[in-house]
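Hello,

Following up on my earlier ticket. Below are the two sequence lines again, exactly as submitted.
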Amino acid sequence: MNRKALFQLIKERKSFLCVGLDPDPARLPKHLGEGPAAVYRFNQQIVDATRDLCVAYKPNTAFYEAMGPQGWEVLHATLEYIGDDHLKIADAKRGDIGNTSKMYARTFFETLHADAVTVAPYMGEDSVKPFLDFPEKWVILLALTSNMGSQDFQFTPQEDGQPLYAKLMTKAQEWASPDELMFVCGATHPEKFRELRQLAPDSFFLVPGIGAQGGDLAAVARHGMNDHCGLLVNSSRGIIYAGNGEDFAAAARKSAQELQQQMVTALATYLP
Amino acid sequence: MNRKALFQLIKERKSFLCVGLDPDPARLPKHLGEGPAAVYRFNQQIVDATRDLCVAYKPNTAFYEAMGPQGWEVLHATLEYIGDDHLKIADAKRGDIGNTSKMYARTFFETLHADAVTVAPYMGEDSVKPFLDFPEKWVILLALTSNMGSQDFQFTPQEDGQPLYAKLMTKAQEWASPDELMFVCGATHPEKFRELRQLAPDSFFLVPGIGAQGGDLAAVARHGMNDHCGLLVNSSRGIIYAGNGEDFAAAARKSAQELQQQMVTALATYLP
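Thanks for your patience. The regenerated structure is below:
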């Protein structure tokens, strides 16, 4: 899915919501049973309940790896179940030396048919480039993450006074165009979105941190939206664990709908 | 395996060699056949041929993930096959927000029974800490990696003039002791090992970049060894692809032996 097609979806669905599919076996509704099959049923029902409200799904690989080999079957089946009308993001935060990153890229893009993969930047250009060799696929590079630990290194001023995340965003745009590269920018730093948007005017940002982590959607939209929207706002726990009884899917839909309604307003207000 | 036990192994085997088990299906000897079973046979024979020459094995998860769900079975079986007389390092370069890093930590330490996992530092303290909650398990944090891309961000001077890797190594030692934290320091920067050792006098360094990547073992040992040896020097491709015929295991042994012989000399010369 290219940038134009993604923007088209956003306009059609009046939504820039990404639903994070991070199923913790310990938190699934009891009536679904246990084990990988229960996780798959959970994902199917979450997807069915939210399809028309979002433009992307983002399974975090940690939750699938934790189930052992069958977890990878569930991840594969879930991505297949989502189909082609959503951007499918493998939240894997991979990154290694060139020949190894190439193996990861093949896994996520060719075997699992994900559209995008999150990549950790610490190892630099040759750890990122192999993910860029796949047409119409996306790298989503960690820039300013939503967690407390973002304070440790990402904000550190470099010799020229710029923080590390700014250097990184500038540098990475020499490697790839906004048609193949997005950045992770956490909603827990809403005051930074004006600056982040200046650093990468045309890029899409994947924005975690709304909901359980306390980020501010309106502020993100006000400062972060560009003429292609340029935002994919993710919510994981706030949606998938909105309920934990037999009506969990309806509760998830309600929670997703609340965010989508805020997005209708944001798009009407801030899309140029 | 704790630091004392690791040092004991190093003295017994006169080796600080780590063998990287990164099996690329396209490069396996033809007579082994194809698919995950062939990879497992390959790993078994490499392990059998090198057991007495090394103190650690390091499978890189990328090569197992690329095989799909069965790849995780092979990784699990390989770690089990190695047994308890070597440090088992899952080279995964993971790192995510706290609740997600916790899932990864459980996978590698509890499900796969690895002794150590490599962790990417960009997301800071709360992305690393969950890996530290497991007694006698190790975090091996990326500090100065062996690839070209290490130039992009790791060497960047911070406001105080120190490069990022130095800030990171200093900071990370506030989170964990040398009994639970190692650093990845690439052998492709041998001139840096004096400084790296000053930054973390008591820590073990996992040192990739010997062999295929061109690093210099003698220089690393001269500048990097401490009173617990403090070095695990890894070779992957240089050992496992030393031959590609029916005698591949013998060729791997020969290649491992050459490195181990250099280590006998290095230990006799530089161990205080």
